[in-house]
Structures are given as structure tokens and as C-alpha cells.
Amino acid sequence: ILSEVIKFGKRSRMRDAIMKSVDLLEKDDFESITAEIRDALVFNLDSEIGYDLYDIDLRYKNLKASLENRVSTRYTQIDRVLNGGWAKKELYAFMGPPGIGKSIFLPNVAIGDLTNGLNVVHYSMEMSEDRLGQRYDAIATSINIKKLIDCPEEIKKRYETMRKITSSHLKLKEFPTSLASVLDIESHLDELKLYQDFSPDMLIVDYGDIMRSTRKTNNLYEEQGWIFRELRGLAVKRNLIVITATQANRESLDGDGGTKEIVGMEKTADSMEKNRILDALFSITQKRQEKDQGKINLWVAKNRNGESSTTLEFIINYTNMQIKEALLGAKEKTENSDLELEET
User: Fold this and answer.
1) Of 80, 85, 210, 251, which has the fewest CB atoms closer than 10 Å, so is most exposed?
2) pLDDT at 174 over 70
3) Is the pTM of the predicted complex or chain greater than 0.85?
């Protein structure tokens, strides 16, 4: 009921603003037109007026609920630095130079949370829905991505097994590069709710850098800053986990064809404004030798609510696009076992 009342109020105020703007347009009073439209857009019936600092019980009750409601990423290392996993109303990003694996991490994260019981929508701004679907199929089945075309029955069986585990769904949607904005995403979310009664818990946006801001800006720096502000605003407004990717600049690259060992926030391409908005930023690092060995890492470049400036280690299989955790401590265990054997 509240949602319908808000829609009615916004529609009525916008209609009035448009009618007034007709007369203002004849006078070339563009500033007043802008003010009328802006006032119509800010209509809201939000009854939440914030916290009282002295209301300790309420604040910590809600804080505890927020921590308990975190969603596991299915990667123990990431869960550890995020104090339990993803949180709704927050924005996360994976950063790396082109071809380093940003768009491989994203579907691995999404399919893990699908099996966690979350509804997910994956928006692609640079890859077709068919190609993106293949990546998910390879991750889900462990089949070589080049051989998927010959294995439709195996893919079906795998997904049938997954559907017995969870009733959640994952939707794939392609938007044209550099033409889609947060408003296009919101429109699509409304259509999913209207026609399929589907409401997601998580959005994967691949990727924020090649979206379009809803605001007119003077340069790319401002444009990308506003895109990430709008993505985080979407997370808060719709109570969603939003995960995206962003490019690292050329200074993140090493001479051997890999990346530097540490890729910090200062290596973000085009706009440092993006980092101010993010709740956590994971930069992907990989030496050439590590790529040959099937290793890949995440450097926690920023973490608003937890540990940062630490390296997380993973194993990547480029034939089936799967990313799994490295066995942490395996080296130490081996060294300790050898030492005990020598002493014996």
C-alpha cells in the first residue's frame, strides 16, 4: 500500500510540475523548470528519522542483526575479512587490468550465493547473455567451456541437482555498452517483479566503468564517480548486495605480463572517486608465473568494516572458469611434518 501511495504521489507531483513547466518554457525560464522537476522527484514518505545516539539498546540490537544477516561468500578468506560475508545495502568491487579475471570472479561469486539460497541478477555490459551463460555452465558442471556445446544433457542434470538444493534463481540480462544507467536496471527489476514475481537479493554488475550516469557531467572522472554513487544508492534503496568490477590502470601491470604484487586503490583507472563509495575493494593480482601455475590472488585494497591490506590466495582453472580457495597453511604443514620426520 505504501509503495502504491508513493507512486501515486510522485505521479501527481510530476504531472503538476510538467503542467507548470509549459508556461515556464514559453518564458525560457529553464531554471524554474529544473527546480519544479527536481522538487517533484524528491517526494518521499520515509518515516524513518534516524537513531538517537543515547538509544544504545536499539542501535546495538540493529547492529547485531546486521552482522547476523551477512551472507557467506562461499570463500572462507573473503568471509573472514568481511566479518562473515556480504551485507545488503553495500557495494563491493573486484579491480584488475583487462584480461586478468574480473569477469571470472563475478560468476563464481554469484553461483556460490545462488546455492546459498539468494536470488541473483547478473547484468552484463560487455558480454552477450549466451556467452555469459556458458561461463556459468562451465563453473557449475566443471566441463571444459569449449566442450559445453556437446554436453546439454549433463548441464541439465547438474542444474536439476542444484534446484533440489535451493529454490533460488539467477537471471542474466545484457545491456548495450556505455548506454545503460541505474535507471535501466531499476526498470528491469520492476519488470521482473511485475511479470515473474522475482525479487533479487544480489546484483552482479559487469561492470560499473562502462555504465552511464543519470547526471550530466563534465568529464570521465566525475562520470564514473556518479555511476558508483548511483550503484550504492541502488543497493540501499532496494536493500540489495551489489557487486561490480572496475579497471586498474597501466601502472598495475608488471613487466613480465602479470600484475604488481600489490595493486592498491591508487591504481584505480579513470577516477579515484569510485573508491570513496565502495564498501570493499578487492584488487586481482597475478604474476606471469602464477598464471602458468593456475594461481590468482586478491589484495584487499579497501574494507570499510574490516581487515584490509592483506592477500587472499586462490586457484583458477581457465578451462572451466572455476575459482577455488588455495589450501592455506599447506606449505607450513608440510615443513612441520618434514621437521618432525627428521627429528624422529
Assistant:
1) 251
2) yes
3) no
